[in-house]
């Protein structure tokens, strides 16, 4: 079936179930032509279709990043959360500024959580050698701040991402986590912190 036909099926879907199936079929094509439609689906208020669209964008990988970044919906937090989740899974360095801004300023906890996870998944080879140390420091600072915020799901994501980048400055990360254990009030997050410490020692 031609890619144009599959795109048309997504746009003409007449039920939630048919939309999800059509998006899955389109995503499985792994065709750059599908990128605008897959991004559009993120704003449809259909979680099943959004997950399928993310799968397609992630399969396409880096080629989809510029379009996702340029089409982030600042007014639809659901669409924004899905888009940030896609960027977080791809891990392309071009999403750095958007991820940092989302962690620091987005009102939606789900967006902040996805962005926080994304900071731990960045491909450091995307940054010039002259910039990578400054980028890693900015990411480390953002994750430390996120690990202290009010929403436990964001704090949990921050701890996971701190583990992912711990090799950058292991002493600093471990020292911080050891002090953070005492301050953390959520048992799940505290257990995650302790696990990171145990793995690193």
Explain how this protein is built.
The protein folds into two domains: 1-89, Alpha Horseshoe (Leucine-rich Repeat Variant); 91-201, Leucine-rich Repeat Variant (Alpha Horseshoe), CATH 1.25.10. Helix content is 69%, strand content 0%. It has helices at 3-11, 16-27, 35-41, 47-60, 65-70, 77-90, 96-105, 109-119, 132-146, 152-164, 170-183, 187-200. Helix 3 runs antiparallel to helix 4 and helix 7 crosses helix 8. The termini are far apart. 41% of the residues are buried.
Summarize the structure.
This protein has 201 residues and is mainly alpha-helical. Helices cover 69% and strands 0% of the residues.
Assigned CATH superfamily of the largest domain: Leucine-rich Repeat Variant
- The level-1 CATH class of the largest domain: Mainly Alpha
Shape: elongated
Instruction: Assign the CATH architecture of the largest domain.
Output: Alpha Horseshoe
Q: Please tell me how large the radius of gyration is.
A: 18 Å
Number of strands: 0
Biggest beta sheet summary: none
Q: Could you name the CATH topology of the largest domain?
A: Leucine-rich Repeat Variant
Name the beta content range: under 5%
Please state the structural category: mainly alpha
Q: Give unreliable regions as ranges.
A: none
Question: Helix and strand layout, with pairings?
Answer:
Blueprint: H1 3-11, H2 16-27, H3 35-41, H4 47-60, H5 65-70, H6 77-90, H7 96-105, H8 109-119, H9 132-146, H10 152-164, H11 170-183, H12 187-200
